[in-house]
Amino acid sequence: MEDALIIRDLHVRVEGKPVLRGVDLTVRKGEIHALMGPNGSGKTTLAYVLMGHPAYTVERGEVLWKGQNVLELPPDERAHLGLFLAFQYPVAVPGVTVANFLRTALNERRKRLNPEDKGIPIPEFRKLLREKLAMLGLEESFATRYVNDGFSGGEKKRLEILQMAVLQPEMAILDETDSGLDIDGVRTVAEGINRIFGPHMGILLITHYQRILNYVKPHFVHVMYNGRIVASGGPELALELEEKGYEWLREQFAEQPTA
C-alpha cells in the first residue's frame, strides 16, 4: 500500500525508558488524522521517530512508506521519499535566509525526483514564494530574514507551514503546530493547511487541544495515552475530549501493563 504510512507494533525507548509501547496506525493520502492525548503520552516521540531522530531507540516494529521500512533510512532519505515534519519547537539558523533555505530544499527535492533537473529558475521561485507568503499572511520581507532567528512563536509556526507549502510533501506530520498561537494565528495556520492539503497528501496532525480542529477537519481522531493509541473515532471524539478532558484515560487505563 504505497499511498499509506503504516505503523505496526512500534516500541520505542528514550534513555532506556519505554515511551512507545506498541503503536499501530495507518494514514493514507487524502486523509487527515488528528492524534491527541495528554502531555507525556508519546505524541512527539512518535513524530520524531517517524523522521529518524537519533535519540530514540526502536526496540521493535516497522514503519512502512512507499514499500520501504523507513526506520532503516536516515532522516534525509525519509524526507526525499516525501515525509515531512513540522516541529513543535523549530530551531533558529542564523545567517541563512528563509528564501535561500526554501530554494535549496526545493531544488534538492526536485533533483531527487529527476536527477537531470537543473533547479527552479529564480523568477519562478520568487513567484511561488510570494504566493505562499500571501497565503499565510506573511509580508514578502519575511523571506529575507534568517530562519527562525528572532521569530515570534507564531512566525516560527507559519514558517513550518510555509515549508510544507513550498515542498509539497506526500505525508506531513505536524507536531502541535497550534501551540503558542493566539486564535487568529491558529486560524491563519489552519487555513494554510487546508489550502495545501489534497488527495496527494496525508496529514498526521498532533495536537493537545481541540481548537485547531475547528478549522482543520480531521477524517479520524486518535487518542494516545501511556505510549499507546487507546481510542479512535471520527471528529466527534475530539469534541468529547474537549468536554471530558483526559482524566478518564487515567482512570480507565491506569491498571493496564506499561511494557
From TrEMBL:
Keyword set, alphabetical order: ATP-binding, Nucleotide-binding
Residue span(s) of domain ABC transporter: 5-251
Superkingdom, natural source: Bacteria
Keyword Ligase attributed: no
Molecular function GO labels: ATP binding; ATP hydrolysis activity
Gene3D superfamilies from the UniProt entry: P-loop containing nucleotide triphosphate hydrolases
PANTHER family: ABC TRANSPORTER I FAMILY MEMBER 6, CHLOROPLASTIC (PTHR43204:SF1)
Record family assignment: Belongs to the ABC transporter superfamily. Ycf16 family.
Protein name per its UniProtKB record: Fe-S cluster assembly ATP-binding protein
Source organism (scientific name): Thermoflexus hugenholtzii JAD2
